Amino acid sequence: MANEIGSKRFLALLGSPRKKGNSSILAEQIIQGAESVGAKVETIHLHAMKIAPCQSCYTCQKRDSKGCAIDDDMQAIYQKLIENEAWVIASPVYWFNMSAQTKLFMDRCFALPAYKKDAFFGKRIAIAMSYGDTDPFTSGCVNALRSFQDTFRYVGAKIVGMVYGSALDAGEIKSNMSLMQKAEELGKNLGSQ
Length: 193
Ligand SMILES: Cc1cc2nc3c(=O)[nH]c(=O)nc-3n(C[C@H](O)[C@H](O)[C@H](O)COP(=O)(O)O)c2cc1C
Known about the structure:
The chain has helices spanning about 20-35, 75-85, 100-110, 110-115, 140-155, 175-190, and strands at about 10-15, 40-45, 85-95, 95-100, 125-130, 160-165.
């Protein structure tokens, strides 16, 4: 979907409480790559949003549902998810999975098709993750990556690529030059398709 000046519109959802943390830095590299090929990217810090956990009322799954019954910041995010053709989702590994901020957002996406039928279909997605341990398996990063893969396969969205790497302190990920390069390439790829 191109906007009035013809550029593609992307949405970045950052799931770390650290605004300048490692997963956000990786996402920023993806964003730069996408912008370099003409995409316009809006960024949302999930930690700053009021997003309640899904309450399993199934209102969103009812015939002719108008959407999620919870009136919080997700209501605006649903519209942005629909309007933007590609999403960048970034998360740190917390206790061998994605962060709680990211999972709250993911669970609430259950309601997205109530706002627009086939809302997930054709969306292109880039994933960025960081972890403190030395590899994606012992850190638990693979659990989150698998979760993203299973979810987006189930709803018919396409993961274009996933970048992830080891870094503990905020900003440490910048020294991993090959990963930074890979993230930028992923952004270009996301923006070129
Ligand atoms: C509550 C908490 C739980 C964590 N759990 C893990 C973990 O299970 N595995 C791991 O490798 N690193 C773990 N870490 C380290 C972070 O994943 C790591 O510092 C990451 O780079 C943080 O990303 P951010 O800078 O984007 O927040 C944890 C950190 C915190 C604060």
